[in-house]
Amino acid sequence: MVDAVLSILIGLGLAAACGFRVFVPLLVMSLASRAGVGHLALGSNFAWIGSTPALLTFSAATILEIAGYYIPWVDNLLDTVATPAAVVAGIVVSASAMSTDVSPFLKWTLAVVAGGGTTAVFQGITAMTRHVSSFTTGGLGNPVLATAEAGGSAMLSVLAITVPVLAFLLVMGLLYFGVKKLLFRFRRPAAARAT
What we know:
Blueprint: H1 2-20, H2 23-35, H3 52-68, H4 74-97, H5 104-137, H6 142-162, H7 164-194
């Protein structure tokens, strides 16, 4: 039972990390599965994540993705393409991290609803933040955001695999802070118009 809960927490942490960068969590999973680090145990259907071709593909994709986010306005275009890819990646990492003790129905339901949903929320928050930065700084502030997002994705991925409970608490805190900031941002102009 404890292993099943830990595996669900790992999946949610990795899904949240996919909301920052699509390929960083997959690369970290591939490396961790090969090194036997942390609490990650891939099921037989997901053993391909630790294969050499997958590791090379995730490495190249991570480098290209991170580099693309340092080009102003291209990063906004990448957000458009990355959003559906991030949700799919969030579902895959959630399902692959869940232990075999979890029934397939529960595994895929949690992967789609919780994993995909968590990824979508984080991807939405980062995309909205980037759009605000693009319009307020003319894109000059976006490299700072890109660095924070890539670092956040890597840190959250490593924490999810090594300290899943801490990663889950961090995800909950980030969700609270991010949603609160977005709601506050949209409520403030409405309140200003009312006065």
